[in-house]
Amino acid sequence: MDESSPLGSMRILSLPVTEHHTLSAALSSVTAGWEVYPIYSVDDQCVCTGSMRKRCEDPGKHPTTPQGSNDVSPDPERIAEMFSRWPGENVGRLGCN
Ligand SMILES: [Zn+2]
After folding, report:
1. What residue spans define the domains of the chain?
2. Residue 77 C-alpha to ligand 1 middle, in angstroms?
3. Sequence-separated contacts (24+) of 50-55 with Cβ below 8 Å
């Protein structure tokens, strides 16, 4: 045990990118200058995969996070956390239209 090791104070950013294609896509979008958040997808009937299903008024664009598009972030660490806590099959992006 060497608690004076410089490695002990190094901040390690670990992102669960393995087997998480949506997160990978989200982080690519961030690199391209977008701010992103996780959103639900639609099934083969174009029905929202969120809990609202057919009652959803915004299928395919419906955020999985509690604050919806207000949770949008440019921070990879925050984005990884969002996709981990509120998984979505798609990536919502805010940026230039
Ligand atoms: Zn929905």
Report:
1. 37-97
2. 25
3. none
